[in-house]
Amino acid sequence: MKKILFGLLVIAGLLSNQLALAAADLELNTPAISALKGSMQQRHGQLAGFYASGAVGLTRDGLIAVKEASAVALKDRQSLNSLVASENNDRNALYKEIAIANGHAEWEAEIRSTFAQRWVQKAQSGWWYQDANGWAKR
Amino acid sequence: MKFSLKSSVKNGLAVMALALVLPACVTINIYFPAAAAEKAADKLIDDIWQLKNSEKANPAEPVPVSPAK
After folding, report:
1. Structural domain tally of chain B?
2. Which of A44, A79, B40, B60 is geometrically suited to a Cys-Cys bond with A26, CB 3.0 to 4.6 A?
3. Residue A129 has pLDDT above 70, yes or no
C-alpha cells in the first residue's frame, strides 16, 4: 500500500515538473489569439498617427484612450472614438484569451498588467501613456 | 519492534515525499509565470506594432502611417 502511495507521489512529482516546464512559455498559438493579433495589427496602421499626435494614449490598464480630442478634426472624432473602442475590445479579449489558452482564466488581470507595462516600454518616443500621476510622454 | 521501526521510517519517507510534492502542486496552481508573460507580451506587441521589421530596417523612425481621415 505504502509502495503504491509512494509510487503515485513520485509520478505526481514528475508530472508537476512537466507542468512547470510547459509553463516556461505561454501558449499563444490559438485561433482566437491569432485572429485578435491580426485585427490589432491591421488597426495599428490607423492608430499610429493618433499615438504620435497625442490624440490617443496608452492607459495604465493595458488599453488606449482618447487623450486629446482637439488634435483631431471635429468630423473625425466619432470615427476615432469607434477606433479606440474596437481596439479596447480586442485588447480585453486578447488578455482573456491568453489566460484561457494557458488554462488559467484567473491570470487575466496579471496578463493585463504585464501588457500595460510592455506597451508603454515599447511605445515610440513622443507617444503618451498614463502613469500614477496622469499622462506622461515617452 | 523491528517491523514498527521499519514502518515508521516508511511513514517518515511518505510524509517527507508529501511535504515535497504537495507544495510543488499548489505552487503550479497559483504561480503566475511573470517572466513568461512578459516574453509573450513582447512577442505579441512586436507583431502588432510590427517593431521587429522596422527596427531592423530603420531603428530611428519606423515607417510613418498617417491616420485615416
Report:
1. 2
2. B40
3. yes
Question: Does residue B69 lie within any of the structural domains?
Answer: no
pLDDT of residue B15: 85
What pLDDT score does A23 carry?
Answer: 53
Kindly report which listed range (A78-92, A95-109, A118-132, B27-41) carries the lowest average pLDDT score: B27-41
**Eight-state DSSP code of residue A107:** G
Tell me if B2 is assigned to some domain. yes
Bridge-partner residues for A129, per DSSP?
A58, A136
Residue A37 with chain B: CB contacts under 8 Å? 44, 47-48
Whether the ipTM is more than 0.85: the answer is no
Q: Which long-range contacts (CB under 8 A, 24 or more apart) does A32-36 make?
A: A32/A93, A32/A97, A32/A101, A33/A94, A33/A97, A33/A98, A33/A101, A33/B44, A36/A90, A36/A93, A36/A94, A36/A97
Tell me if chain A has a CB within 8 Å of the CB of B47.
yes
List the domain range (segments joined by +) for residue B10.
Answer: 1-31
